[in-house]
Design brief:
By secondary structure, the protein is an alpha+beta fold. It has helices at about 35-45, 50-60, and strands spanning about 1-5, 20-25, 30-35. Helix content is about 30%, strand content about 25%. It is globular.
């Protein structure tokens, strides 16, 4: 299971994060992808960088937008 979080760029390897937005479970029968879209929209409006892996799953499982 992978958590989808908001973190500072310099603290990503220390386990600290600002907010947990959701998670992804690739071992679930239908690849369970849960995310709080309201909080995601909030952080996108603040100008956060979305890494390529999360962006790929957003496009695959959610509405296809250019983030």
């Amino acid at each position: 299971v992978y958590d989808i979080i908001v973190t500072f760029k310099d603290k990503r390897n220390r386990g600290r994060f600002i907010e947990k937005l959701g998670f992804f479970n690739p071992n679930f029968s239908e690849r369970l992808f849960i995310i709080n879209s309201a909080r995601l929209a909030f952080w996108i409006s603040r100008g956060v960088f979305i890494n390529t892996t999360v962006k790929k799953y957003l496009v695959k499982f959610l509405v296809k937008k250019n983030y």
